[in-house]
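Please check our next protein.
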Amino acid sequence: MQRKWLAVVALLLPFIVVFSVSAFANKPLDVMVNNFLMNERLKPKLEEGVTMVAARSLAEALGAKITWDKSTNTVWINSPNVHSLQTQVNLLQKALAPTSPKEAAQRYAEGLKTRNGALQFAIMSPQLQEKRRKSFEAFLWGEGSSSSPWIEEASVDDGVQIKNDVWQFTITLVHNDSTNNKRTGTYDIIVQKYGEHWYLDKD
């Protein structure tokens, strides 16, 4: 397929793309997509003072689909329906909203065990979500490496009520690795009631 070149500014997709452009347009161009460096290095073209890169590589990195209509000489870029996806995420988070302090602690512990950052995030208070969002995004909503060591067990005690709408729980984690070297660690979390539901307020 013939490669078509589009100006970067024409890619009006609902994502942030950061470009580190060399002073010389004929040198390789590092492309950062949502804080991640694309694997391939693109060679830009300079036309009438505008730096251009291949549309396909950028569009696909942003989750869009690109097609070439030869009959009309048109490049089609279709981005994901971000509004629909965000609505789906919001509804899933509401469905997961704990109705008791112990349930909040248990679900957070489950998220730790499975290294599911999306689950951990859903159980957090709005303030904690704002604080931790970037770190979860950096690992694509996982929790670091999925290899050894891993969390083999995650348990929660009965908790202590600090005040009317605030509880403290201790989570016990049993780590294991490929040599079967098990280590046990504990740490405390604070769970607080927001509206009708309970959320992790401090970890």
